[in-house]
């Protein structure tokens, strides 16, 4: 008789975002085999709403510099015992973590038992940009049995921090349900030049570069016969930055709408013509770019980070230098003025997503990479 061992996901964090989404996709067909361990409400709620079994581990919270102040450090240390009990109780086939703090919690909790439990580190971020994460990496880089990087850009960052290159495998995230998309009557957005909808979507922090988009929109060549609508979807994470954005939006000679957090981003994107990703810092492998390609809309992305591994200039999308609003304005102008090109890029991007960013390929590559863990 074959005994199927449980797989454990150890996670913590202040919000649930792209990493949580693509992790839930990985295990959507094996929900009975995965248990999610966390101490933070956003993580527990997200995975519970996705249909996974979750267990609350007291004290398993997001880590930052404040976490190492004496009074807070005591609370962090108290989490190691209940986490250890949970890990040993389930005796998992392997433990999946997708950030360094979760790896830190897991490694300390398993002292003396670590060899019995292979750890898979799924990396969605750059660790070299943060001094605290760089410090963690010195002690943790040899703990995982296997490391999955979401892009070649992330892999290079890991190698720079001396993570063992032989353990690192690159697997691009996949979000497209190929069967579902192939069966639907897909129609690329209209080539009409009378009205265009541009979308920026995601949690809004300064590094995401929304101010760059609005500065680009301000200097676009205004054409009175074209109605261009800029749609800003997502919650602001910083009140001061929100004030800055509101002021900038008043200078844009087009309609700017703030939609707040949207419950169904896929449905919203299906109504758009152009998606703009404009991060001013390296973005590991932005899920929003994948979502734009899958929605069949023309994508303009920042060239720093993993986006340029799927956006091929004038083919699957357009790229602009991070922080360069004048270049972004030119790319926007190109798509506004050339409906045929906009339609062709939309089709190419959609075809690419369907073939290379689908769920089946993603799962096959991921689980193929973590076989033979022991």
**Beta-strand percentage range:** 15-25%
- The total of beta strands comes to 13
Q: Report, as a whole number of angstroms, the end-to-end distance.
A: 20 Å
Residue windows where pLDDT falls under 50 for at least 5 positions: 183-190
- The best one-word shape is globular
Task: Figure out the total of helices.
Answer: 15
Sheet with most strands: strand arrangement: 3-2-1-4-5-6-7
Write down the overall mean pLDDT: 90
Largest sheet: 7 strands, parallel
Order of helices and strands: EHEHEHHEHEHEHEHEHEHEHEHEEHHH
Radius of gyration: 22 Å
What is the element layout, followed by pairings?
Blueprint: E1 7-10, H1 18-26, E2 34-38, H2 41-49, E3 53-56, H3 70-78, H4 80-90, E4 94-97, H5 100-109, E5 119-123, H6 131-140, E6 146-149, H7 152-160, E7 168-170, H8 178-183, E8 195-201, H9 210-218, E9 227-233, H10 239-249, E10 255-260, H11 265-269, E11 274-276, H12 287-295, E12 298-302, E13 318-320, H13 325-337, H14 339-356, H15 359-369
Parallel strand pairs: 1-2, 1-4, 2-3, 4-5, 5-6, 6-7, 8-9, 8-11, 9-10, 11-12, 12-13
């Amino acid at each position: 008789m074959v005994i199927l061992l449980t797989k454990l996901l150890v996670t913590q964090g202040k919000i649930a975002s792209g990493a949580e989404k693509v992790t839930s996709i990985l295990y959507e067909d094996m929900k009975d085999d995965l248990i999610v361990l966390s101490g933070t409400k956003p993580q527990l709620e997200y995975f519970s709403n996705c249909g996974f079994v979750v267990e609350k581990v007291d004290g398993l919270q997001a880590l930052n510099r404040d976490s190492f102040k004496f009074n807070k450090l005591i609370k962090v240390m108290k989490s190691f015992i209940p986490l250890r009990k949970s890990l040993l109780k389930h005796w998992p086939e392997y433990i999946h973590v997708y950030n360094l703090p979760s790896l830190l919690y897991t490694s300390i909790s398993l002292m003396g038992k670590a060899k019995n439990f292979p750890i898979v580190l799924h990396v969605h971020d750059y660790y070299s940009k943060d001094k605290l994460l760089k410090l963690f990496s010195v002690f943790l880089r040899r703990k995982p049995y296997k490391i999955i990087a979401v892009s070649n850009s992330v892999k290079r960052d890991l190698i720079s921090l001396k993570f063992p290159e032989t353990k690192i495998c690159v697997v691009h995230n996949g979000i497209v349900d190929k069967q579902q998309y192939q069966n639907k009557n897909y129609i690329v957005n209209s080539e009409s030049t009378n009205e265009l909808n541009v979308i920026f979507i995601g949690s809004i922090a300064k590094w995401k570069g929304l101010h760059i988009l609005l500065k680009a929109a301000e200097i676009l060549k205004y054409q009175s016969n074209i109605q261009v609508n800029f749609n800003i979807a997502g919650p602001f994470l910083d009140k001061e930055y929100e004030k800055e954005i509101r002021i900038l939006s008043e200078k844009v000679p087009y309609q700017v709408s703030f939609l707040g957090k949207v419950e169904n981003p896929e449905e919203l994107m299906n109504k758009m013509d152009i998606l703009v990703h404009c991060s001013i810092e390296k973005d590991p492998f932005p899920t929003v770019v994948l979502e734009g390609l899958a929605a069949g809309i023309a994508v303009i992305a920042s060239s720093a980070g993993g986006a340029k591994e799927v956006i091929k200039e004038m083919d699957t999308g357009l790229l602009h230098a991070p922080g360069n609003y004048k270049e972004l304005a030119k790319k926007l102008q190109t798509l506004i003025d050339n409906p045929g090109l906009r339609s062709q890029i939309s089709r190419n991007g959609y075809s690419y997503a369907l073939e290379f960013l689908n769920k089946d390929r993603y799962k096959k590559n991921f689980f193929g990479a973590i076989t033979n863990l022991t």
